[in-house]
Design goal:
- This protein is of the alpha/beta class.
- It contains five helices and six strands; from the N terminus they run αβααβααββββ.
Length: 151
């Protein structure tokens, strides 16, 4: 029903959501249903989801924002660009409460004939446990030819 969609109240025209490093394989960030759930919670007319490239170093959200802002403007709607350019509203960059995360590749096995490329990554995240935030490190094994298979 178009009238219901048009009468919906949004938080704004366009927003960017940065998927934290090391969490890009999680259902909520990797499936259409999960991404729709994020879009509905954030409630902007256009939501740009960005997955940070593995193997790159990102200092913090401000660093990512500065690097991606010109590209984001190209992806924003025409109306969103006009509002941004007139300094009436900026395009917000959002992420989870634990920030953009930290990820480093500690091992990469080059592919051999008939075998998959293997990567071992170390992920640092902030987890809430017993009401306090704690830093935790995880390692995961990724098969590049099947990125949905993570151990």
């Amino acid at each position: 029903n178009k009238s219901n969609k048009n009468s919906r109240s949004f938080n704004g025209l366009c927003a960017v959501f940065i998927v934290p490093q090391g969490r890009e394989h999680e259902w909520i960030f990797n499936s259409e249903q999960g991404q729709n759930q994020i879009a509905n919670q954030i409630n902007y007319q256009r939501l740009i989801l960005i997955k940070l490239k593995s193997g790159q170093k990102y200092e913090n959200l401000d660093f990512v924002k500065k690097e991606l802002s010109p590209i984001v403007l190209e992806l924003a709607s025409e109306q969103g660009r006009k509002i941004h350019e007139s300094n009436q509203q900026s395009i917000p960059f959002l992420t989870t409460s634990d920030g953009i995360g930290k990820l480093r590749t500690i091992f990469k096995a080059e592919p051999q004939i008939g075998k998959s490329t293997l990567i071992v990554e170390e992920i640092e995240r902030e987890l809430e446990e017993d009401g306090t935030n704690k830093r935790a490190q995880f390692r995961r094994l990724i098969f590049l030819e099947n990125p949905n298979l993570v151990q």
